[in-house]
Each structure stands twice: as C-alpha cells, then as structure tokens.
Design goal:
The chain contains five helices and no strands. It is an all-alpha fold and 165 residues long. The protein has one domain (10-38, 51-164): Up-down Bundle (Ferritin), CATH 1.20.1260. Helix 3 (82-107) packs antiparallel against helix 4. The mean pLDDT is 94.
Amino acid sequence: MLEGEIRTWKPDIIAGAIAIIAVMAALLSGQFTTTPALPWYETLAKPGFNPPNWVFAEVWATLYALMAYSLFRVLRMREQSQERTRAIVLFFVMLALNAAWSWMFFGARSPLLGLINIVLQLAITLVTLAAFWKLNKIAALCIVPLGGWIAFATVLNFSIWWLNR
C-alpha cells in the first residue's frame, strides 16, 4: 500500500455478497424444479456411466462454491475495463443457462430441451473461462472443473435423450 492509502474492505464485501447471492439464486432455482421431478427422472433409461444421484449434489455443491469464488475474484478487481465487463456478463449468461437447464430438463421434463441448453451452456462456459483467464488466472482455474463437468453432462444428457426418444 502507498503512504496515505487506506484499504477499504467494503468493495470486497459487496463483491462477495453479489457472487454468493447470484450463485445461490441459480442453485436454489435449479433445486426448486429438480427435486419434484426426481421420480420422473428415475423412470428414464440411462446409460451405464450415469452416476448415482448423490454424486450430483456433491459435485454441484463444489462447482457452485468454485463459481462464486471465481466471480468474486473478478468482481473485486479495482480496474474497470471492457474485458472485465464482458467477462462478468458472460459469467451471468453462463449462470442463467445453468439455472435454465434444470427448468428445461426437469421442469419441462424434456431431455431434448436440456440438450439444446447444455450445448450452448458448454460453449458459453468455455468462452467465460477464456475471458476470465485474461483477467485472473485463479478465477479461470476455478471454472475449469465446471467446464469438465458440463462436458460430461452434455454427453450424459445426449445419452438420456437418445435412450428415451
């Protein structure tokens, strides 16, 4: 810190609150529609590599925590730039697609709608990762597991759609 410079924690607290609230909203939105549809999901034919249901909760808890931390790191950056704004917008598009997937797959009970969403979601996740990489390597690395999981989930979603068409 430079002489006379006072570090304030208020921007960090605001960035943390925004990150946590945004990610929790997506998580809760997905849970709201997924839980009631689990009996329907159990009736679907699934590929042999489909994980047990408990795995999804564990993985998503970890991914949502990483997503919140990733967004926090970018939000707390002091410098304003078009790249930063673009990265934040991409993150929120990615998060909205993530929440919408549950509504499309479980809420609408449509593996096809889920598949359409998740292909776009995977593309936006990779673009978001690249945008975060330019700004903050740690923030980007926190998105890498999400990209891997979404890639796996895309194959899984396709397989479920294919087996149940």
